[in-house]
Design brief:
The chain is α+β, with helices and mostly antiparallel strands. It contains six helices and 18 strands. The chain starts with a strand and ends with a strand.
């Protein structure tokens, strides 16, 4: 399972990150897709980036399959597990822009600078159930964010749904509207909180912080993680400077960090947070840490030739 979030610092720069939780890694590493690259795409022929991108990925048959990434313009995209709900088009749909599920994050980050642009483009996009190489089609939904806002994209049996995410948080199943409505169960912890509630990004304080997180769920399931990280993200004070905001990103995601021993899959393997990764639009830097090594490592777009024609594998 996974947890993702977005926030902006006191100067309006986006920070965007996620935990990747699973039973084993995929051999992933930090990959930069420069503007000069031509990435093979099954339905589009190639993806030729307008914007250079950086994030965590595996490369399959010349295509970077990103778990999460962000571009030089400050748009971030993360794919999170959505089992039992995700359903993509079984075949390309004529008259639309057909994008394979595995290349969808790259397609968005390579072509668009803002959430508003993505929202408009989604009106003509079909996400097709096409997997890279010998891998299966991953059942995902996506968090997309910029300096001002974020959205959630979910494809189900009845089509594509795009939700404004005023909480700037995403975990896994059930669908996002359920999580959003579930937050009302925790507003009651504040006896002075008015109801009914209209949430906006400017006034979002969905639960009382006076008593901290007393009474909040502490399990590793998606619903519990969503509540905890939404609380932490909403109440963390705005910070100034790169170091303070990177710390905020990792510490907030730490509220959903999964330790081995907390839960087993059916095969007896432990699910755990394989890595935490995040992007600072302020410095165009991708930061990451792993379960075995919690120290931050980083790679900045500014240190590489973004007009290169080849993928840049940092790891």
């Amino acid at each position: 399972m996974c947890t993702g979030l977005r926030f902006s610092d006191s100067e309006g720069h986006m920070y965007f990150g996620r935990n990747l939780d699973w039973i084993e890694d995929y051999g992933e590493g930090v990959v930069i897709t420069p503007r000069g690259a031509s990435v093979p795409a099954p339905f589009l022929g190639t993806i030729k980036p307008k914007y250079a991108c950086i994030g965590m990925a595996i490369v399959v048959e010349g295509a970077p399959c990103y778990f999460d990434l962000a571009n030089e313009a400050g748009l971030g995209v993360a794919g999170l597990n959505f089992p039992g709900y995700a359903q993509f088009a079984p075949a390309p749909v004529e008259g639309t822009v057909n994008v394979a599920a595995y290349e969808f994050p790259l397609y968005l980050a390579a072509n668009f600078a803002t959430v508003a642009e993505v929202r408009e483009a989604l009106k003509t996009i079909t996400i097709v159930a096409k997997a890279p190489g010998n891998y299966p089609v991953s059942q995902l939904h996506w968090l997309v964010g910029d300096a001002k806002e974020s959205i959630v994209i979910e494809c189900q049996a009845d089509g594509m749904h795009v939700y404004d995410d005023d909480l700037d948080v995403l975990t896994n199943q059930p669908p996002f509207p359920w999580h959003h409505e579930n937050m009302r169960n925790y507003m009651g912890l504040d006896p002075d909180f008015p109801a009914p509630v209209t949430w906006t990004r400017d006034t979002l304080k969905p639960f009382s912080s006076a008593a901290g997180m007393v009474g909040f769920p502490g399990a590793y399931d998606p619903v519990s993680r969503f509540v905890r990280v939404a609380f932490l993200n909403a109440h963390h004070p705005a910070e100034t400077g790169e170091a303070a905001n990177v710390a905020r990103l990792f510490r907030t995601l730490g509220g959903a960090f999964q330790t081995k021993g907390g839960g087993k899959q059916e095969g007896g393997q432990y699910e755990y947070t394989i890595y935490t990764g995040g992007y600072s639009a302020a410095t165009q830097t991708y930061y990451y840490s792993t379960y075995e090594d919690p120290a931050y490592r980083s790679a900045s777009l500014k240190d590489y030739n973004l007009d290169s024609t080849e993928l840049i594998c940092v790891k």
